[in-house]
Amino acid sequence: MTDASGPDARVAASVAGRERWQPAVIAAIVPLTPAVVSVRLRPQHTRPFLAGQHVDVRLTAEDGYRAQRSYSVASAPDEGDTIELVIERLDDGEVSTYFHDSAAPGDTVEIAGPHASYFVWRPGVDGSVLLAAGGSGVAPFLSMVRQRARLADPTPMLLLYSARTWGDVIARDELLAHERRQSGFTACFCLTRDVTRRSSDFARRVDQAVIDDMLARLGGTPTHTFVCGANTFVGAIADLLLAAGVPAGSVRTERYGGD
Amino acid sequence: MVTRGFTGRRPIPPYADRIPPGQHLVHDFPVLSAGPTPTLARADWTFTLRVGPRPIKRWTWEAFNALPRTAFTRDIHCVTTWSKLDTRWEGILVDDLLADAGLAPPTEYLLAHSFDGYSTNVPLADLTLGRGMIATHYDEEPLAPDHGGPARLVVPHLYFWKSAKWINGLQFTTRDEAGFWELRGYHMYGDPWREQRYTDD
């Protein structure tokens, strides 16, 4: 659980001395699944970032009341002058419901970041990568998969993605296209409330046999493992990984929600 | 800058002045960790107080729990923007730990260390005079592994990443040394009321 050097210094230096918050115009809002929208933002200043980092989004009401949340960036670094966020509607939320119900292209929000340099993938790093996503926890992995494709990076990368149904798989067609076109990238969908469409997927929750199968597909223990999703999902996956002999120090987690 | 169409959901008045800027109130207890939750048997648990590299005193689970116990109820604030009010903790104050070691604080700075390799820096002044605790209980129950059990640091007036889960030691350092998140873009001190989230805040 230690490494902090290289590109982080570049990112830190580029952000230093600037205003933390900056305006970002909503360029597009597109439904991805029944519960998830893609929000494309055009910040005033483009800032370099690493795949897996997050931005803070801040909204201000007319009376000055503010709400702030963090979202992983789903677009690849260096993709242009916009970044994409993947936002799931939480019925008791106030920021996600704004993006789902009120926001429109042309509206302006404020963002800070991208921030944090632990849950990040760096292209060209040796070894294989296992990504395990639950639901909208796939967002930081989309950034990683997209960057790998843009750079034609040869890192063996396997995305294990748990979703309720085939229709709930975010960016499904794009992931399938990456799998067809990008050597060394595969996606495996675990559908908890649906049948499978492909023989390489599973129609059940991730269990020990699924994890063992993922390690076999990668040809052994992954060098780096990232797990992102709701806390119960991440906890369950982390336990299965450790039971399969994956060293705890090679597993990075990002969680949301309580217990 | 007003966001068109945003109305928001304000905390109700008795609580509003307890929520720092950029935070929102939650009623569950979110779990945030950089890696898997370690499984720690109380029989194998130890806590070590160090000055630099030098161990001063080591406690077993039994000896640690024989120290004077304190309970406090505090609001906590996570840098991921949730705040939770009136959380009840019980454990050993850092004051009582230092007293048991018979150690006059040799420096102004400490690093908290955890079983999983995590670390975080907290100034001495933020851990003493009843401000910091090694908690073994939350809400009158033994602390669950996901929340840092068997024992975690609780420094409720700083962002909650300072409250190291699965703590196994405190170390005096001559300078204010960055820990795990402080090396990865987060603030050296982390005062929620001054919104010290990231390095340059």
In CATH's first tier, which class of chain B applies? Alpha Beta
Please estimate the helix content of chain B: under 10%
Q: In oligomeric terms, what are we looking at?
A: heterodimer
> What's the architecture of chain B in CATH terms?
Alpha-Beta Complex
SSE succession of chain A:
HEEEEEHEEHEHEHEHE
Structural class of chain B: mainly beta
Radius of gyration of chain B: 17 Å
Strand content of chain A: 25-35%
Report the span from N to C terminus of chain B: 19 Å
Radius of gyration of chain A: 18 Å
CATH superfamily of chain B, by name, is: Oxidoreductase, molybdopterin-binding domain
The biggest sheet of chain B, with number of strands, parallel, antiparallel or mixed sense and barrel status, is:
6 strands, mixed
Structural class assignment of chain A: alpha/beta
Mean pLDDT of chain B, to the nearest integer, reads 95
For the record, the count of structural domains of chain A works out to 2
Description:
The complex is a heterodimer of chains A (259) and B (201). Chain A has helices spanning 7-15, 95-102, 139-151, 172-181, 208-217, 231-243; strands spanning 21-33, 36-43, 54-60, 66-72, 83-88, 108-115, 129-134, 157-163, 185-191, 224-230, 251-256. Chain A has two domains: 7-115, Elongation Factor Tu (Ef-tu), domain 3 (Beta Barrel), CATH 2.40.30; 129-256, Rossmann fold (3-Layer(aba) Sandwich), CATH 3.40.50. Chain A has a six-stranded antiparallel sheet. Chain A has a five-stranded parallel sheet with strand order 9-8-7-10-11, with helices on both faces. In chain A, 24% of the residues lie in helices and 32% in strands. Chain A is globular, with a radius of gyration of 18 Å. Chain A has six helices and eleven strands. The two termini of chain A are 25 Å apart. The longest helix of chain A has 13 residues, at 139-151. With 201 residues, chain B is mainly beta. Helix content of chain B is 8%, strand content 32%. Chain B has helices at 13-16, 61-65, 94-101; strands at residues 24-25, 46-51, 54-60, 70-77, 82-93, 109-114, 119-123, 133-138, 141-142, 152-154, 167-173. In chain B, a hairpin with a 2-residue loop joins strand 2 (46-51) and strand 3. The interface between A and B is large, with 54 and 44 residues.
